[in-house]
Amino acid sequence: MPVIRNKLNQRILIHLKGGRHIDLLEKGTADVTDEELSSSHLQDLMIREIVVTEKEEEAEKTEMRKSSYIRKGK
User: Fold this and answer.
1) Residue 43: φ, ψ to 5°
2) Whole-angstrom distance, CA of residue 29 vs CA of residue 63
3) Which terminus, N or C, of the chain has the lesser number of Cβ atoms within 10 Å?
4) Looking at residue 67, what is its pLDDT?
5) For 16-66, how does the pLDDT look when each residue is reduced to its tens digit (9 = 90+)?
6) Beta strand 12-15 with 21-24: parallel, antiparallel or unpaired?
7) What SS3 class is residue 8?
C-alpha cells in the first residue's frame, strides 16, 4: 500500500473521489489505496511536490528517526 507524506509545515485537506477526504497533518504520512492515489487533487499536489509518495519501509524508518528525538522523562 502506498504511503504519502506532506512536505509542508501546514495541514492539508486532500479531496478524493466520492466526496471523501484525507486530513494530512504537517509533515505527516497516510496510507492510501491505489484508487485514492489516482484522485485528481492528490495528483495535482504530487506534481507540485507538496505531497510525495514513499514506500512503507521508508516511512517506518522516518518515523523511527523522529521518535528517537523525543526526550524521555526520568
Assistant:
1) -60, -40
2) 9
3) C
4) 52
5) 988 999 999 999 999 999 999 999 999 999 999 999 998 766 666 666 565
6) antiparallel
7) coil
Identity at 8, one-letter amino acid code: L
CA–CA separation, 31 vs 68, rounded Å?
22
Distance CA 4, CA 46 (A): 9
Express each pLDDT in 2-22 by its tens digit. Answer: 999 999 999 999 999 889 999
Q: What span, in angstroms and rounded, lies between the C-alpha atoms of 56 and 5?
A: 11
Laid out side by side, the sheet with 3-6 consists of 29-31, 3-6, 51-54
What is the per-residue DSSP string for 8-51?
Answer: SSS-EEEE-GGG-EEEE-TT-EEE--HHHHT-HHHHHHHHTTSE
This prediction has a pTM of: 0.73
Report the distance separating Cα 27 and Cα 14, nearest Å: 14
